[in-house]
Design a protein that fits this description.
3-stranded antiparallel sheet; 28% helix; alpha+beta
Length: 152
């Protein structure tokens, strides 16, 4: 059995929960002329429940390109909502996470239990969980209300 030289070895740089985020990272690396490819993309696309079991969508690079690829993706955040640069109020309306001060936040259904008593009763009657909406930080996974957010 022969050992491959370091410049020919392929390593997993990062694993992503969804194919869209993986493609954004792959496109960023390709724009910087770093060759890369994805695996498990179709499996995770077909059924999201397979993602954690298979390690998610994996981004592979050559071992010699790991440092450069990490530097390219280091500060890259994937926005979950569209922002308008033309909007004069856009800068003042940016919310920051109260825990980590990240701007990678979005408003939507809460992932943790945020039941009030009426919502809990309605959920039991319908047999379907009805959850409130909160802001979610994709950096530290903290959920918070707008009143807790840091406006800058």
């Amino acid at each position: 059995m022969t050992s491959q030289p370091a410049e020919d070895r392929i390593v997993v740089l990062e694993s992503f929960a969804d194919p869209i985020t993986a493609h954004l990272a792959k496109s960023r690396l390709e724009a910087e002329q770093i060759p890369c490819f994805l695996t498990n993309e179709n499996l995770v696309s077909l059924n999201r429940l397979y993602g954690p079991a298979t390690g998610g969508v994996r981004l592979h690079v050559r071992e010699q390109d790991v440092a450069a690829a990490l530097e390219v993706l280091r500060y890259e955040t994937v926005p979950m909502t569209a922002s308008h640069a033309d909007d004069e109020h856009a800068e003042s309306d940016i919310l920051h996470c109260p825990r980590c001060n990240s701007t990678d936040v979005a408003f939507g259904p809460a992932t943790r239990n945020t039941y009030s008593f009426p919502m809990l009763m309605l959920s039991v009657l319908l047999g379907y969980p009805l959850r409130g909406k909160r802001y979610h930080c994709f950096h530290c996974r903290h959920e918070f209300k707008r009143s807790e957010a840091v406006n800058e």
